[in-house]
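User: Show me a protein chain along with its predicted structure.
Assistant: Here is one chain, sequence first, then structure tokens.
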Amino acid sequence: MANTIVGLDLGTTKIACVIAEVDRDELRIVGVGTCPSNEGLRRGVVVNLEKTARAIDKAVSEAELMAGVKIDAVYAGIAGDHIRSINSRGVIAVSRGGNEISQADVDRVIDAARAVAIPMDREILHVIPQGFIVDDQEGIRDPIGMSGVRLEAEVHIVTGAVNSAENIYKSIKRAGLKVHDLVLQPLASSYAVLTPDEKAIGVALLDIGGGTTDIALFYDGSIRHTAVIGLGGYNLTNDIAIGLHTPTEVAEEIKKKFGSAALSQVREDEVIAVSGVGGRGEREVSRQVLAQIIEPRMEEILGLALREIKRTDEAEMLGAGVVLTGGAAKMPGVTALAEQVFNHPVRVGEPKGFGGVTDMVRDPMYATAVGLVMYGYESRFRKPEGAIDESHLFDSILAKMKGWFGEIFGG
């Protein structure tokens, strides 16, 4: 359907599909579906095409049943510790008579900014304009129509491994769907959980997923830095399984029901029942022991994020503090621990800015899936004047793949 937009979040622990309809310039969520994905993906990367495709099909079918529609294409997220980003600048001379800057000039300066050397096994996923400079006048959002002889563009370039992008594409194709665009997951999440004010005065977004923690820094209304840490909620689950001598599935449930990232917030008299491995019986364990396992690992994840943030020029410009999202952000004590680590105000970001079945997706674990829908909506219906069309980028990834495999296999 022309007015239907679908977001597909391929996470390490779950695949989430969100279907939205555009109703009188408003997004309405009409379908939601999820399926476990831990056998098909690892740390945001596809490791089993068939199992990933089956999980996609199940999540999509569940969302289609709720929405009462059949879908054929999605906006898909991409993450993993293969993601890299850089900031770049391009400069051109304005070509039009009268020195009036046109859309063609903007396109040329963006092309100049993205002309950076990257390895053959990587491809550009996003080229995101941060701002323009006209004859040394900085801070310009949209230069079209302005007069000048020299135009510069500052852009944020996100690259990913070609094979990772190809495997996501293959998995979705095996599930009988097409891909409108591949979108960096923290960029997608930002559409769902950050406010314009936060992006303006500076904010760090941490999306703590199952296999990775994705970081995105915003300042002056634009994205300034992105990074991925190869640790997430699954590491907490694994620590619990080892520390409490219990199966991974049981550890996951214990984490969700009783987990806390702040030992000081857990009472001494609280106990939980823990199943043993290999048919061993249940035993009682203090909930403080559980917190003693979780807190240091969560502190490590947050500490690695802080170290990444301190490497950037925006580290001192986080006027709005830190926003946590993703499944692990819901755990009690995480906000308090994050405020200690970052020494900034911290809040948990829940998806907002839409209608429909809001109760089902107003949860940090759906931030990426809802954000993909909102990204698709902005791209299709509300692209601001002067914005750069990124729809060709995914086609270029596929073209590069075909060239690769033609060379390798003589095709």
